[in-house]
Specification:
Number of helices of chain A: 4
Oligomer: heterodimer
Radius of gyration of chain B: 31 Å
CATH class of the largest domain in chain B: Mainly Beta
Distance between the termini of chain A: 86 Å
Number of domains of chain B: 2
Number of helices of chain B: 7
Number of strands of chain A: 22
CATH architecture of the largest domain in chain B: Beta Barrel
Strand content of chain A: 35-45%
Largest interface: A-B, 98 and 93 residues
Structural class of chain B: mainly beta
Number of strands of chain B: 53
CATH topology of the largest domain in chain B: Maltoporin, Chain A
CATH superfamily of the largest domain in chain B: TonB-dependent receptor, beta-barrel domain
Amino acid sequence: MGAAKGNETGARARRWRRAPLAVAGIGLLLGPAMASGCQPGFDPPSKVAGLRILAVQADKPYANAGESVTFEMTYTDGLDPANPRNVQIAWIGGCFDPPGDLYYGCYAQLGKQLASASSVKPGQPPPPELEGVLGMGPKFTTKLPADLVARRPAPDQGSRYGTAFVFFMACAGKLGPAPATSEGRAGSFPIACFDETGRQLGADSFVPGYTQIYAFEDERTNANPVITGITYDGNELPDDVTQAPTLKACPLTDDERRIQGCSKKQAEQACQTYALRVEVPTDVAEIDPQSKSREGGELREVVWVDYYVDGGELSADVALLSEASTGYNDDHSVTWLPPDAPGVYAVWAVVHDNRGGTSVTRRFVRVE
Amino acid sequence: MTLIAPSSLLHGRPCRTLIAALLGASLTASASPATAQQKPDDPPPGSSPETPPDRGDVSVPRGGAGAIIKAPTEAPAPPPQGKPTMPRPKNYAPPPYPPEAEKQGIEGAVTLQLDVDKEGHVAKAVVVEGAGHGFDEAAIGAAQKLDFEPARRGDGTPFAARILYRYAFSLKVAEPSPEAAKAAVVRESLSGRVLAGGEAAIVGATVTVDGKELRTGEDGAFVVDDVGPGKHRVIVSSPGFEPLAVEEDVAAGERTEVIYRLVERGGGLEVTVRGARPPREVVKRTLEKREIERIPGTNGDALRSIQNLPGVARPPSIAGLLIVRGSAPQDTQTFIDGTPVPLIYHFGGLSSVVPTELLEKIDFYPGNFSTQYGRVQGGIVDAGLRSPKDDGKYHGMVQVDLIDARALAEGPIPLLKGWHFTAAGRRSYVDAWLGPLLTASGAGVTQAPVYYDYQFLAETRPTPTSKFRVGFFGSDDALELIVKKPSANEPGISGNVGLHTAFMRVQARYENQIDDKNSVRGVLAIGKDNIDFGLGAFYFQLAVYSLTGRLEWAHKITKGLTLDVGADVFSGPANVNLRLPAAPRPGEPSGGPFSTRPPVEVSQSVTNAAPAGYIELEIAPTPRARIVPGLRVDYTNQTDRVDVSPRANGRFDILQGFPRTTAKAGIGLFHQPPQFQESAPNFGTPGLKSNRAIHYALGAEQELTRHIEVSLEGFYKQLDNLVVGQLSPSGGGSTQYANVGKGYVVGTEVLLKYKPDDRFFGWVAYTLSRSARVDRPGEDERLYNFDQTHILTVLGSYKLGDGWEVGARFRLVSGNLITPNVCNASDAGCSATRTNSLFYAPSNTYTAIPTAQPFSERLPLFHQLDIRLDKRWKFKAWQLSAYLDVQNVYNHANAEGLAYSFNYTARQYVNGLPLLPSIGLRGDF
């Protein structure tokens, strides 16, 4: 009798233990599936679907104090290629050595300059203090002060330098003062873009930005990187749209391509893809005089490329062209998955070095 | 029928002695219980007489009277497993001595028949042999308050039983002389119980204190009087159990109560619960080994278990940070055996740098710590390493799980008589799976991530009162990757990514209880720390060579007054080489990618010198009160200043004995020197002062039951002189550091704890706090980066039997703070057309324009359930354990950060770890 009760108790205990064991076992089996998720992500930066500034190239990425520097903007409006919009380009310069070398340290200077600009009557030449400060259109020239470097304190190590900031904006509407919004310690950008009804436009229609020019006491220079072309599957893409090669469309829609996670369709297997590659000289990276390896050896610039397309999808947005210590990287092609809609599409390659150098090129492909 | 006369519970006895002596007691009386157990069917347990504990002619006055504690006349061996057991009392309160009988000098004994039900309650008490004069009523009244461990059958099933229980009332007529009373006042005693787990007392266990041997009584109790202050070697043994050897520190003029739990042979690790000696600090939390090993979600890692205590914030996902009471991670100092170490966790907090098996204890002070610690303004974690086993045998342990494997061996050192050693090591497996994973994701792997740590200890006892130990321990974490794809946000950074952190210490420790009044302890260590970080063309290399030491002398000046004097030093050269972009200043929004800025290059050597001295008085005007004022004086050549830090802590037992009620409070000044990069020439700003904090604490502890205790602490930390980086007034983009920051941390901690018994342990910990800073004069107050308003942890573990144990941990914590770059669409005033970023042409990236102040938005509430299942198999000479630890059982998507679209037009939460099972195996011999 006692033995029977003991067995019953033991069986009860075993049954009791099965519950947590079963939960643990089910969790172990289902966990990875539950954890993977199927959350869609954001659009990649390489996808041009609105107004985008693709590059702002300075003719002298490293200038000397007192020199003039000319900037040229490359932009495109991908919101509705069938109905191109009028895009207004504006430039604001004249900010030198702001506190902390921070762009929002320029806001105080900009406020004064904009106040001066508002006093200029239409048709009158800008006053001398605004020369090289305000500009319109894709090109803008500004002059660096002669004391840009000398007025700064010498650093403990390295060459003394000064820096200039130039702001720019592209607006598919009309520029105007920005309404007050919530802001942090960086403040808020004081200019906004409005349509003809006065409605403030968003990021697909208004792109503000800034660039920075360094001037060093040792008068070092930096050249913009050289681009020799763009190839697809080893074939050169011509820069003449009329000679664009014809490639095969991929029938998957954008929504189908965006699905990630457990139910992702293998688009690359369903469609033909193409290897896109910007062509640069193997010595595209200059020696960086300020950089030394920990062993004291010379280092080169870091050079990379940003790819953009206004149709289809790229496997990567950025590729490394040259690394500081190992040099040229030949493995920098990306895979392009063509769009589902036939048409002519543009491909941009914007090559940068880490010292402000920029070059840009554009090619076209036809999709059928 | 067999009469068993147990020793009564002795807790609190010297306290009563002290009070009685102070009152000038002239007449003592006693009441001591004796049980007479009668098993209904079976013969009673063994009844062979045992030698009573040698406690001398102990007299314990109680109020105006006293109690003579009867020695056990019989102490049966613990019943063998599988045999029925009789009821055993779990509590005891002496019956009041009948006033009339006491006045008339009458003694007596009462034998009761008790019916104890299956729950262990006394259902009925009947006088079998009375004594009149009020003794019968007093005995029945006391017996009805008793709780028993119920009688159990061989299979563990409880059953109702009838037993005989005897109370003996006796008087002590000898009036103590003033000298005797005075002597009684200054007696130190060591008392306690020996248990087999929970409240299962081990009767007849041998307790040897400094070579003096005695046996435990019916309830496992023992007492040793006149042990004298200082450290005492205690060895506890009983047939069928692993012997336990510990060292007890008995404070001058105080009782020390302990509970020793012996582990059945092959049953696991020894566990020692420190008893009632009040700590010097207001809050000192100690975790038991079973708690450490069985807390779900920690993989049995001791130091990770600290994160479940009140006052400790939940670190961001996979960040191995220790955030104590709203302070920065660097504000909390970690020690191994009294020697500071730079890190306590391996990569991302996967495991700690000391294996759990080597730890004797972890002392955690969230604030108001003693003057023996300094140079930080947050908290202290001191992980004490245990002594090698000295039973003459060799022991070992091997454990493997999905993350790492570790082994330990210990025993006597051949050819070195009296020396014992412990050697342990661990190596991670992370490289086995993370390396291929990273390669598959496009990153070339040069050095797959791997960590290891090692410990070697050798110890001897040159004299019975001294101990000498040499140790060698360290840790190493390394990883190196080739990144072929530039980062989208920092495309100027490409190339190899390398990280190597390591530390090593060679340590010598010495402790000696010189005599009754003097003791000395010291620790000296030399070491080296390395941090080597590389990211493309950027690098940071730091090598710190250190000489650290501490020497402390404790001297008992008089009864209730002990002086602790000590010195500690940190010294050594450090070499730093770096090439990095300038770091942003606190609260400063990004000015664009930092990788395109001109870098800062520094190559420098400095020598650190930071000696300190401290003095502390332990004042115990009564056994109920303890006040510990102290003073610490620090010098560091980093600031070239002397920092004076007075501190005081106090505790007062409002109610002594059970249930104890204690009030406690503390106030103190704490200084923390600037970080290396803040004060070093050519790197930071020389001439800084130390960061300063004033800690205030007020709290109470209350025992609710024998197993449940609640503690409540309120704290306030006032911070000033905080070193903060700001723009250099000399222009340019350089940073200048200054002591301009201020802040405060205020909060409340509650810990409701069920102390481990033979089945269960668990606690509920809750912290409510606010940590705020004002970075620079004139700026608004902001919540500090690591502020977490609510931290709730509920955990428990239950032994199912047959070696099975199941546990669960649930955490509910306020979300971490972030600086939002895109407003939350559900917030009022969130504009969809706001310009959230600027295109940065030199790198074709976007620079965010935060929508609000730094760390002003809180992520959603974090909650997670973890479970753990353990199974142990015992074999003749060894045991095997296996566990399954499942984190985030219901796979809740806890937000750990925000991700943004490339131009900051949209945002979504980045979630932490999903459901994550982990398994492990362990063998011990």
